[in-house]
Amino acid sequence: MGDESGALPVQQYPPPGRRALIAGSTMLAAIMTTLDATIANVALPHIQSTLSASPEQIIWVVTSYVVAQAIATPLAGWLATRFGRRLVMAGSISMFTLASLACGLAATLPALVIFRFIQGIFGASTVPLSQATLLDIYPPEEYGKAMALFGVGSMLGGVAGPLIGGVLTEYMSWRWIFLINVPVGILASTALFVFQPASRTQRTPFDLFGFAALSISLASVQLMIDRGAMLDWFDSAEVCAEGLVAAVAFYVFIVHIATARNPYINPALFKNRNFVIGVLVATGLGVLVFGALPIFGTMLQTMLGYPVLLAGIMMAPRSAGTAVSMFISGRLLGKVDARIILIAGIGITAVAFWQMAGMSLETPTSLVLSSGFILGMGAGMLFVPLSTMAFTTLPTNLRNEGTAMVALFRFIGTSAGV
Question: Are 30 and 85 spatial neighbours (Cβ–Cβ below 8 Å)?
Answer without folding.
Answer: no
